[in-house]
Amino acid sequence: MRNRAFSSLGLRLGSALFGLLAGAAGANLQAADTPPAAACSSCHDQGQKLEKSAHTGLPCDTCHESHDKYPHPAGIPKPVCTTCHEDQAGDYASGVHGQARKNGNEGAPDCALCHGSAHELLPPKSQVFRAAVPDTCGMCHNEVVEQYRASVHGQAMARGVTQAPLCTDCHGEHKIIKHGNEASSVNGANIRDTCGSCHGDVRLTRKFGLPSDRIVSFDASFHGLASKEGSQTVANCSSCHGVHNILASSDPKSTINPKNLPKTCGQCHAGAGSRFAISQVHVAEGRSEPAALRLVRQFYLLVIPVTIGLMLLHNGGDWLRKLIRLRFRSGAGTPPGRLHGGAGIQPANLHVPGHGEIRMLPFERLQHAVLAISFMTLVWTGFALKYPDTWWARPLLLLEGAHWLRSLIHRVAAAIFMAVTVTHLVSLIVNRKLRAHWKEMLPNIDDPREALSNFAYNLGLGDQPPGRSAHSYVEKAEYWAVVWGAGVMIASGLMLWANSLVLKLLPKAWLDVATSVHFYEAVLATLAIVVWHFYPIIFDPDVYPLNTAFLTGVSVKKSEHAGDRHATEEAKVAGD
Fold first, then answer.
1. For 532-542, how does the pLDDT look when each residue is reduced to its tens digit (9 = 90+)?
2. Would you say residue 409 lies in a domain?
């Protein structure tokens, strides 16, 4: 009986001991399975904060090394953000804040000041974080932030439009650079792209009802073109709209309010808008453009293709007829275009030099040379402004950022072109022989008949060339086209050159029309020179590779193939 009692007691003690050992083992297994963050949270409340931050999900030992021992070893360095965020750290180090801190300014912002505690920082793309950016920047830049809050961007943000631009959207986030640095996103050379990231985004402009043509119209304007070619002084978006104090044009305090435009534009164009209100500034093709501008554009878009097309048909037909005559109509018994013995290729109708004719006097040759050089320089430098990305425009733009090289060359060439024009006019007045000769350039009743008959022949209608007079419709059309083009280009060019005076005396629409006319007339003149003038000088098979009359003053008559009449008789110039 006693043995049975002892036995029962031992069984109960053994069971209890086994339970204690099993409980201890279970506790150890549970501790082993507990996540480190939960383990750290038993002593540190940062674990609960971490769950709502941008670092949620990261184990504590990602940043805190050697803290798995307790008590924690002494002297362990604090974690640094650069361990994970190397790119952001590099940007910060090269920015104004990092440089200031490097130079000993301990008050300069660091990661913690802008983002907050590593355990509580918010995701940078979250609405709450973006809404807090002005407050963060305002800790140091209070005056600027006050201007921002009153601006259209700040008002939009206050209404809950989280896509409205913030300080960091324009200045950058970590790599904030002074605006004077060319690498800065708010440098004058980069303002267009910075503003264009929103105002050039079709989706954003549609979503918020913003004008969608602001960047396009700026790029097409002189300001935009000059900025694209590298000018550092031309007006940009911020020059007119302001920097942090951007207000709607309807606001009386806005720099672009109609009443304030004379002052705003007057920063560069003294007296602008003093007589007439400065009208529409952003002008783009379409329904929003002024009626006068639309008429100019439609006129030239009709005249240019029709004029150049007729020139191509006229000269193309002449070239094709001569090509057939020279290459395919050889003498009987002789292979076409072959010299005897096969030494080379010879045109079937090799011209024999005749007597020379005076084509241009020395004074006229000099005048022509200066006119040609100034015209080609104007074409090069003028289109370089419109198309600065082309390879032929780049040499002019190498120094354009610091010096107005292209515009200087263009204006010097323009002055020479105007001087040649005046010289030609004066020479006709004072020299009777020249005046008598140039009277032959006046149109007469035979010109239409001669032009139509030659045009028809060049198109393949007829077997015999009708012939041309000494000063035919070809020379007359070319001369009067030069007179017309010179007048239009000089008038519109002077308006653009004296733009401040024009804005002071006339409505801005006059300057817009002058800009459009100057460009389209330049296109027409350039194409006409290449298609109409260069043909009898270079491309005509009868004179190829070059008619040297503009160099020597004498043209050489060439005999035609047997049975053919001379289609282009050289003009004879009076005078000695």
1. 999 999 998 88
2. yes
